[in-house]
Design a protein that fits this description.
- The structure is a single chain.
- The protein has about 280 residues and is α+β, with helices and mostly antiparallel strands.
- It has one domain: q2cbj1_9rhob like domain (Jelly Rolls).
- It has an 8-stranded mixed sheet with strand order 1-12-7-14-5-4-3-2. The protein has a 4-stranded antiparallel sheet with strand order 6-13-8-11, with no helix packed on it. A two-stranded antiparallel ribbon has the order 9-10.
- Strand 9 and strand 10 form a beta hairpin.
- The longest helix is centred in the first third of the chain and has 17 residues.
Length: about 280
């Protein structure tokens, strides 16, 4: 198990992003794709389903989304395919947010020693696995993910969240790869997403200035690449207008000693506390 080099650690500190090609094997990636295929096949949609869209944000007021922190929930794309009957797997935006604690295949994937090792190498002392997402970015209708940082949505004091993004398929400019703004993770947070007294959520604006995106950098990634993102690094992905999907898996990790406020949108029941890389699989 190879540790990060001093140059890689410094690059992450300076830029807020680190790209590690071939971190996972094709077989490891395919194990998640295959398991998600089984989960999708067994999923029975109720009604029209909940749409996940970072441009519309309607999902942020829905109970199905707000109670998904300790469950496996399915979220649809806003757009519709031109196909007469679109397969379910080609109309989903993502699945979240606790596969890593509720599903044995996803739990085994994230709890490999190399995952824990790279987390320690970037500074985690007692990491807690907060949120997991399987992202489909389906052909033709995969939606834009607007410029944002992760910390406002997964707030801790002090800031500690890091994103571990895995390319389960090749991510290219054509099929909607991520872009980022290296170095801007050193700025103060510009927003805070939180629950409000009415039972819904709100976005509190701390700085209304938009991110300066002139120097944005594409994060094209071959299958098996791990991309680590600081929680304050701005990132974005455009719509997938190509005929090729861009499946990915994301794990968000926080530091155990950091305070995780009760007004954060993502919460768990007391029966299912957050666990680290070494924890046993929870009963579903």
């Amino acid at each position: 198990m190879t540790a990060l080099t001093s140059n890689q650690k410094k690059s992450f500190e300076d830029k807020g992003v680190l790209v590690l090609p071939d971190f996972f094997t094709n077989q490891e990636c395919d194990s998640l794709k295959s398991r998600m295929g089984e989960l999708v096949e067994n999923f029975q949609p109720q009604g029209e389903g909940t749409v996940f869209s970072t441009t519309e944000q309607k999902h942020t007021q829905e109970e199905y989304f707000l109670t998904s922190g300790d469950k496996i929930r399915f979220f649809f794309e806003d757009a519709q395919s031109n196909e007469q009957e679109t397969p379910l797997g080609k109309s989903l935006n993502k699945v979240g947010h606790a596969m890593h604690d509720l599903d044995p295949v996803f739990s085994s994937f994230v709890r490999q020693p190399k995952f824990a090792k790279v987390a320690a190498d970037i500074g985690f002392k007692h990491p807690l696995l907060l949120q997991s997402m399987y992202i489909f970015k389906p052909p033709h209708i995969g939606g834009e993910v607007v410029w944002h940082t992760d910390h406002p949505f997964l707030w801790t004091d002090p800031p500690s969240v890091k994103g571990f993004w895995v390319a389960l398929e090749d991510a290219t400019i054509e099929n909607g790869c991520m872009w980022c703004l290296p170095g801007l993770h050193k700025d103060e947070p510009r927003q805070r997403f939180k629950r409000n007294d009415s039972g819904g959520t709100e976005m509190v604006v701390l700085n209304p200035d938009p991110f300066p995106t002139e120097n944005k950098v594409p994060l094209e990634a071959k299958k098996g690449t791990l991309i680590i993102l600081d929680g304050l690094l701005p990132h974005w992905s455009g719509p997938n207008t190509s005929s090729i999907s861009r499946h990915a898996f994301t794990l968000h990790v926080i530091e155990r000693e950091a305070d995780y406020p009760e007004e954060n949108w993502l919460q768990r029941s007391h029966e299912m506390p957050l666990r680290g890389f070494e924890s046993e699989l929870s009963a579903s």
